[in-house]
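Postdoc handover notes: sequence design on the structure in folder B. Input tokens:
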């Protein structure tokens, strides 16, 4: 059984990066449009009896999700032995519970669609909430991007980040678990948190910083940057409380709406993201640096293929 790697148009860069790492050619396939705009997919070489990996992020437009479903259907009908959906960024993850009347649980619906299309297992990175794994009845490997960031810092600071100088900060209460995990993995750095709350309706928001940031370098950690507001507000609060510099570390850079302007105006020295979501240079805020996630995904693919342990990558 050979590895066959293909994917839609959402993230060709990561698809090619994975193939390069594994020294395999992408499986010949076509993902284009019919003249009315419908998606046209064809796998142009045999995948019968092979181990197929379909690489596609499911950020908007919704065509990205549909391309993945159609590729999976094509692979299944072409008698692939096993199909793994490799989803660098799992879109619609933030709507993961019914927190208001008459709203969908989009993350569950997307999981249902992926499973119904014929996927046997899922490999993804930094799911917005761990419990989304339970929305699937098939195995889900949820990698953390932390090793990619850790490598980056290792190059700059071969001794690691000094815990007297650096502190990991969550920009909100919801992200504290993630920030704690990152702090542990990154040289056991101390932890702090920005806590935003409105004491009563129509009363101005109060921003507290819990933990020691005065005179420190801050590593502000989040999974997603979308409009940039969460990061910009948190960075301002931290600098007001005496933080020396703020470096942002977020796995998925969506940068929608006015994110570019919002983040250009924010007191942040650098914004580190990965390429789980493909972004054109033009749309990016200044001071963004993009780290490549391909090698981490490729290593996981290699281990899944040979039945090796993937958990040792959960650094
Ligand atoms: C929220 O739960 C997420 O972890 C991020 O903090 C959020 O999606 C960031 O969104 P924005 O950049 O629009 O503030």
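Designed sequence:
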């Amino acid at each position: 059984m050979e590895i066959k790697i293909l994917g839609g148009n959402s993230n060709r860069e990561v698809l090619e990066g994975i193939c390069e790492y594994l020294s395999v050619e992408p499986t010949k396939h076509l993902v284009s449009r019919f003249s009315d705009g419908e998606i046209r997919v064809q796998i142009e070489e045999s995948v019968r009896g092979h181990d197929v990996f379909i690489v596609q992020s499911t950020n908007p437009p919704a065509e990205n999700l549909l391309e993945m479903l159609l590729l999976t259907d094509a692979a299944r009908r072409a008698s692939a032995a096993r199909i793994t959906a490799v989803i660098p960024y799992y879109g619609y993850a933030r709507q993961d519970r019914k927190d208001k009347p008459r709203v969908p649980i989009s993350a569950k619906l997307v999981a249902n669609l992926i499973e119904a299309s014929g996927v046997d297992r899922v490999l993804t990175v930094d799911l917005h909430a761990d419990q989304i794994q339970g929305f699937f009845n098939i195995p889900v490997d949820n990698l953390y991007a932390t090793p990619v960031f850790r490598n980056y810092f290792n190059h700059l600071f071969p001794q690691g980040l000094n815990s007297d100088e650096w502190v990991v900060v969550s920009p909100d209460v919801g992200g504290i678990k993630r920030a704690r995990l990152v702090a542990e993995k990154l040289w056991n750095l101390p932890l702090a948190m920005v806590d935003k709350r409105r004491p009563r309706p129509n009363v101005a928001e109060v921003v507290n910083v819990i933990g020691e940031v005065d005179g420190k370098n801050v590593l502000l950690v989040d999974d997603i940057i979308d409009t940039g507001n969460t990061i910009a507000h948190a960075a301002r609060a931290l600098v007001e409380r005496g933080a020396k510099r703020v470096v942002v570390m977020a796995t998925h850079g969506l940068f929608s709406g006015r994110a570019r302007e919002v983040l250009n105006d924010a007191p942040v020295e650098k914004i580190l993201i990965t390429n789980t979501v493909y972004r054109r240079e033009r749309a990016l805020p200044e001071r963004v640096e993009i780290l490549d996630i391909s090698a981490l995904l490729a290593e996981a693919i290699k281990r899944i293929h040979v039945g090796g342990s993937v958990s040792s990558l959960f650094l």
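Context for whoever picks this up: The CA atoms of residues 161 and 187 lie 7 Å apart. Don't rerun without checking with the PI first.
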